[in-house]
């Protein structure tokens, strides 16, 4: 504790309380806090250290399982980990960090309470800052995208998209207008990375299965389109496996458009750069991510892409007592032979960075030397739907069922807590014994509509969902969020 004490101008041996603030409750934030709890157990018990975690949601979402949650293979409750349960030694604040003044060691936080009170943000002081707010969807100024586009970054968006797809099939089944039917059964996904390809593959599987319960919809009536601006999809699995993935998707009658961009989606018509016009009621945007906006509201150094400049020790470059990892951090890749190379912002690095970051924070507090983060990229795995996948790991290339199985085993091993691992494994086992669930629960998004109607008020949303409106976006979720934990109590 001597180093931390000296940096604050206090007297060594006076047992100062070291305040650790962790910004973000995602994979990096949660695992860093969890490991700090374990390594600083004695200091926390003596009151020498206190930790606070500021996060917009009271749970951590394991994003690689979002496609399976959207397809109904996994319950949405089981792809999230309740932070209050696993971080019992931390103070959990549900809110958003609006700005950070590291020179003064303060962060301005807006919580649910401050919004209700109409007050300004709360000032939190800290001695050590771990900043891991993650990323948000990277959008482009495409006309109509803000109004009609659907994201795929959160569990709410995943379940909303599942409900939306099934509702479009209900519309197509009941309408007498051919144009409306065709638009309802056309699904456009923009972005050929992991999120776009896996979401499309899982949802196409689900929708094709669901057609057996519709008397007037056949699998060939569904039109799935994947739009990718570059010449390949899934670049992380290599060119050969990426080519196989395209071939596999096209074999399933999925229209893969490479070297193509979405120019507009106004008036529910997707206009592509190759001149194609696709009337559609579903445009899913998964074309990359960018660092969380809070980074621009700090006095910490950023690179040209808006990520925090970091050292191999996961400290923020040129700054003391500030740490970062994950999507928000530009960490030098010391294993690369390319000068200036940085680690990719993916789960493979985030998993390992949290361990080094926690160990270095503890070492810094105890005046011990810090470690460098070094991990050579070993490859990637991707699911293309049930029993289908591609993988390029340790130089080995797999496809089909073996790759799909590797995808499941790997991500199950990385899912936090034994509780969630067991629940997911049980659901996979049951899904192999019973039929798929194809129920749309879109009414969950507006649970008070029926009561408002019964009470004589004009419903804020009609009892039957307004299909001309897109699913709620992040803003709507934040306004309606109550802070309740979706995990089991």
From TrEMBL:
FAD/NAD(P)-binding domain span: 19-348
UniProt xrefs under Pfam families: Pyr_redox_2
Key words, A-Z: FAD, Flavoprotein, NAD, Oxidoreductase
Keyword Hydrolase: no
Domain of life: Bacteria
UniProt keyword Transmembrane helix, yes or no: no
Region annotation (Disordered) ranges: 455-489
Family: Belongs to the NADH dehydrogenase family.
The name this protein goes by in its record: NAD(P)/FAD-dependent oxidoreductase
Organism: Streptomyces formicae
